[in-house]
Give the backbone structure.
Amino acid sequence: MTQVLFKNRHPDRIATMEEYRAGGGYDALTAVLGKYPRSKVQQLALDAVLLGRGGAGFPAGKKWMTVAETAPFPRYMVCNADEMEPGTFKDRVLIHTDPHQIIEGMVIVGYSVMAERGIIFIRASYENAARILEREIERATTAGFLGDNILGSGFSMKISVHRSAGRYICGENTAQINAIQGKRANPIQPPPYATEKGLWNLPTVTHNVETLACVPHIIRNGPEWFKSLAAIPTAAGTKLYCVSGAVQHPGCFELPMGTRLSDIIENHAGGMQAGCAYKTCLPGGASTRFLPKSLYDIEMDFDTMKKAGHRLGTGSIIVFDEKTCLVGATLNMMAFFARESCGWCTPCREGLPYMRDILARIEAGDGKPEDIPLLRQMSKYVWNSYCALAPGAASPVESLLTYFEDEVQEHIHQHQCPFSSKG
Amino acid sequence: MIPEDFKQQLQQHIAGVEHPREKVMDVIFMLQDRFGYLSDELLEDAASLLKMTPLEVEEIATFYEFIYRRPVGGHVIHVCDGVVCWMSGYTAILDHLRGRLGIDFGETTPDGRFTLLPTCCIGYCDRAPAMMINRKVYGNLTPKRIDEILEKLGWDITGKRDDTGSL
Amino acid sequence: MPKLIIDGRHIEVAPGVKVIAAAEQAGIMIPRFCYHPALGSAGACRMCAVKFLEGPVHGLQMSCMMEAKDGMVVSTTDDEAVDFRRFVIELLMRNHPHDCPVCDEGGHCLLQDETVSSGHVMRRHIGKKRTHRDQYLGELIQHEMNRCIHCYRCRRFYQDFCGYHDFGAMGSANRTCFGRYADGPLENPFSGNLIDICPTGVLTDKPARFKGRRWDFERAPSLCIHCSLGCATIVSARYRELVRVEARHNPAVNGHFICDRGRFGFGFANHSNRPHHARIAPAAATYADALQAAVNQLTEISRTFGSQAIGTVSSSRAGMETLMALKILASAQQWRSPSCFQDARQRNAVVSAVIRLSPDTAVCLHDVECSDHILVIAADPIAEAPMLALALRQAWRDGARVTVLDPRPVSLPCEYTHIPVAPKQLSAVLQKLMNALLSSPDTPQFPPLRTSDDAHNAGTVSSPSCDPKPDTALQLPLLAASLQSSQRPVIVCGTNIVSGTVVNAAADLVMQLRASRKNAGIFNILPGANAFGAAIASPDGASFSEILTAIESGEIQALLIAESNPVRWFPDRARIRNAFKKLKLLVALDYLPTPVLDVAHIIFPTQTHFETPAVFINQEGRMQQTSMVHCNGMPLSQQTAGKHPPREFRHDVPGAGAKPAWQVLLELNAALSAVNTPLPSYSELWEQIEQETGIAIDRRPDSDILEGRRLRLETQVHLPETPPPDTPPPINLQEDMSLELYPVESFCGTEELSAYAPILCRMEPMPELIMHPSDAAGCGLTDGGMVTIQSDAVTLDVRLKTAAGTATGTAFLPRHRQLVWRQAGSTDSRASLLQK
């Protein structure tokens, strides 16, 4: 299995800058800075079909192109390391594995949009990762890969680490922009887009950690190589899949984009835990839909998942076994989303606690048959929210009712949780 | 009252950016790390350093999970209640902690050393169940491991609080 | 211009207009909570969901977030949209308490209305409701956080629209609450608008609390007369008592909002000491007896001393009818023309401002909001015309630059450049600014309107030419360049601390900018709601100081004062007291319990502009009329001392002895006239006013009098060519150095009418003497200490506040209610400063 992002992965330590450089690290930066026109960098990313790894899957090159040549300065490059999607930990692993590819990626993207200030927005619980990044930024600066006039190219960039104090909504691009500015982290609905008016109303490009880490490799090896990494011709690159839950070896695995779910669970995560049978999974974190058993063999890439009516999201597979109560699991997630709502719009602020309360009553055996159509209607209506948080929150509920209605009905008819021994 | 040298440190930190507001979170963390929690007095000091009104700082401070506006213990235990931890034995872990410490969520031990709080998925799902103490993460928790951690932090796990029998 | 169809109606709107606003233009009111025309879209409440059937977007969308586009077909009544809106209401009502019976918003609550119209009638949610602790937000606004539906209007208004940051949103998710960091009064002088914009009962009118439902009130459109802007209001009264003032939308003037002085300053109309009956001092009298006594004595004095021995006084708070009736009376009886201004400087400044205003150059408050560079000269907006400060902020938010040339440490809720210039230096500074404007290449010079400099400076005391300070001189070319690069500059000019020379210089600047093809405008601030009308009614009237001199010399033996309180604003109280003692007859007409009534021989109570229609002309020459809200009488609460209404039936209204001042004056005129003069009706009075002045009220049924209409001054109004002369400079505080004392306004505590409003009196700040730190140091004074202003007549103690933004050589003292500043000295006396 080709390891790109995890090439320098060690079980017990972080790869050093020297190790990273020995494997071609900072070659892409050296090649690009001052030598490539910014459009060429953008074109390479576009040709490589580098899709945003934060969950939305937006083409990275296209995002950079939306920063107009005439746009005002200074411009900002934000690295989104606010990984708060339940079940997701790939960015943490990546930072703890080989942080310099993120720094190099930020400088290259910064160069392509002429952003001279980079900000890594990192969640509070990743304090270790934040310290690693600060230390490695310092080293990269000393080595001349960051700071003023990088490698004599005339391009300067400074990167700082911005610690968040913990709110899921801060992972949302526009909410994050507010958070960095020291404002309440409410999202802002475009237009204008952040690439036009972001931080302090200036152009701001935000990327997920994993997306940025891919960039140097694409520059160095070319788009065709990147595309060839994928398992299927319609996808590109590798993907960091996180597997957690009822599997033998939970962990983060770098696999070709489009690897089959069954392959990931059985061959990489060691299969199901002893005595556990696969029931379903959330393929891309808590804000994706439960996958029916029929899709156990699905190819895990943006396109295939979308065509099947699902989302790859962050590629974080939470595996549930037959003994786990999905009503309880959904209630847990709904409690999370209700707590993490920013409180801006009605469906999210009021609707999610409402859904949580209904799920709690069902789980406690106090559910009524009419709760099911009510939940269904609410899962539909919260899609009319201000941002994507509430639609994401509704995904487990809606798919629970679609694929596992029997389990919900059982709760209601038995007036108790049929799995009450667990959870 | 913030000591003068620390105040200068904060001022220096703020002076590093064009918009002082950008550093509101850092300043709050720095104050909190030093003084334990963000008291009204510290919040007002932070506001004046950042050229914000106290309300503006409060708008931020009350938004986030890891900013404590009330006194907390020296060790703040955040137990991850994410869905993966939930299905990996969160309830048992929490019960054990409650039993050992004799406190519930939102409470601080009478000696002021431990505070118990929930937190959302902290991104250690590969090591579920997990918890965080003062922003240091502990994974693969079992009652035994919790006892080790608590003992290491100087908590007498054989104390009378154990009578709830969480094992 | 996008064309779209909403509910089958074809609509064409301006580009950029949101669908919710487009629908409103077509008369379709889409339900909303967070959207507000002045605050814009927020997308928070999701109540304005409509179905887009055809066009660039499809499906359920928020009409506040969607710009109207060509080809859109929108349904507001589509089943899905209706059901979704019902769902939103269900969510909001989950936590909203059902305390409508004791909620002051009940009856005019948007949430109540939308809940009923949405069809949500049954609560499906089981469990507790969310609760919050309420905060004390001061005397004006009651906080009841449990009722909140989180539309964020309050925060958006408070922080974004007004620029104040002591009120906001705290917490997150469904724990979000709105309030202050800690209990305490709101700092925003526009905070009262929170009451109007809150769609439910979270923020309600505290003084009006539990005083009644909207349908219990007598309500009518009215005007705010607490400054010269003439903001539109709606006034509610019950049991002969005013209860509440709300903002009324006037797009040209105040938009949707008013300031707190205008909202809470109405207490004068309910004042317990208000005169309700005529008096022949010291006893009460019938109206007829008082009228007869006045006629007898006035006739006697006129016969003995000549008709010119009778002086008349009114003020800029009197309506047009009163001013003109007084003028008609004075001219018919050949008495002295009404004196409406405090001193010659004020008269000179106001009349100059009125003369120089033309339909081309006059701009309204909305035009200020649309300007791209505003130069404020000799004005302190928050104190003198509060809503102007809000307009400046809106202009600034849109990218405008704001520059202030004023000696005071002016504070504005936006970014601005402040150049402190002493009043006596302002003319020179403006001249330099004019030179800088002219010195830029290709600048055509405007044809001077008035060729003679003497006209501008008529009567001006020639002060030694004061060169602006070097740093000011440096800023002027930059200011000139910035004005040159703007497209819609507006020059705001105050009349409180300067004379007509500065007003004229400001007008000249506007003419010059217009000559350079700028769409430049002038926006004057005048002292008083009807100062403009006073200038029209009596441009040649003596100033009050001239009246005093005439009394002292015996030329005036009788004085008739109609709705004016010279004691309040005239600097020398001892002099005025002695002068009044010399008078053979003092007749006073007023609705306020002024000290004049205490010494007057004959008193006629008059009606407020809430009790009789009155016309006021605001500072931009906009004529507006108030409507009668309720009839005059003693408030029931005063009549019964708060007890249950008496079961006593009578045909008259208790305490209803007051008449409109104009009516008393015209009745006096009729009774005084030898030939039988018929008593004119209200409309006949206006016919007469039209003959006299050229201004007329619109009597058509579709009259725009509520919105107001700007007068076409050049063609309509008869005004003198040049303003009357100016007066000597103000008081010099220090013998050995030049330190001039100026009495000034503040937001609370100085304005005449609101000084009778107990609620605002409780809130007013302590008066402070304001000086530059270096001047204070020069006098040996320290910031925060008590100082004594010592003059021949009196000793005045006041706290000193130093502010670096003050022009050196100047000191400012508010005309504060609590401060007998007027005793500090007469206009020509000298005073000295001592540290206590």
Remarks:
- Chain C touches chain A at residues 43-47, 49, 60, 62, 65, 84, 87-88, 91-92, 94-95, 124-127, 149-150, 152, 169, 171-176 (CB under 8 Å).
- The domain at 279-342+533-644+656-716 of chain C is CATH 3.40.50.740 (Rossmann fold).
- The longest strand of chain C covers residues 795-802.
- DSSP finds 27 helices and 34 strands in chain C.
